[in-house]
Amino acid sequence: MTNYYEVLGVSRDATENVIREKFRVLARESHPDRFTEPGRKAEAEKRFQLLTEAVNVLTNEQKRKAHDFDLTKGSDPGGHDPSAVAKVYLAKGVKAFKDADYLQAVQLFDMSVKHNAKDAKAHHYLALACMKVKGQTRRGVEAIEAALKLDSNNGIFYRDAGKLYHMAGINSKAERHLEEALKWLPDDAEAQRILGEIRVAAEPKSSGVRGFFGRKG
Questions:
Q1: Are 55 and 37 in contact (CB under 8 A)?
Q2: From the DSSP assignment, how many helices (H) and strands (E) are in the chain?
Q3: Which regions of the chain are under pLDDT 70?
Q4: Contact assessment for residue 53 and residue 4, using Cβ atoms and an 8 Å cutoff
């Protein structure tokens, strides 16, 4: 598992102020806007996202305790059951989602899939939470695609993949996923609505150009 103390380069007894200050320093160094070359920019984006995850966990008392618990369990392979830990994070994530604490839900579901990457339901929950948090659409797309790889016969997964691709502005993929969703769920009103919106938006618009004699042609 990821050790967020190591990510930020702080000790496990570091105060919140120390953690936040170290994050500010590292975030300035790794901010994607500092890079123009596509490869380095992509690396910086991943690094910046990891730093953000680390500071969000270590400056939240509940999440930090859970992280410390995981680190302690991880040092004892005989007593560490990743799937059991994943279920705990999943349950906490569901509660946070129901309480509309979507950012925390994203973080908890993310921890769940890191402990058990073969749980399609956890990936799906992560995707749903990402829909609710600004800037997490791409992470949501990755999560729903992971869910589909594990369960390719799930119409709801295809529908939600279509929604996420539509949110990301990738309507060609959104359309394909929604069409697949309707094969499994032909009466799904949400999939029908979004697919209809995409197709209407793709239709050529009437330009209203006037003819040679000043009248509309």
A1: no
A2: 11, 0
A3: 73-80, 205-217
A4: yes
Question: What is the gyration radius of the CA atoms in the chain, in angstroms?
Answer: 22
Coarse DSSP helix, strand, coil percentages of the chain, rounded to the nearest 5 percent: 75, 0, 25
pLDDT (0 to 100) of residue 74: 60
Q: In whole angstroms, what is the distance from residue 3 CA to residue 115 CA?
A: 13
SS3 of residue 210 by DSSP: strand
Residue 122 · residue 137 · CB < 8 Å: no
CA 182 to chain centre: 24
Q: Report the C-alpha gap between 89 and 82 in whole angstroms.
A: 11
| CA separation for the pair 194, 67 (Å, rounded) | 39
Contact 59, 16 (CB under 8 A): yes
Check if the beta carbon of residue 174 is closer than 8 Å to that of residue 196. Answer: no
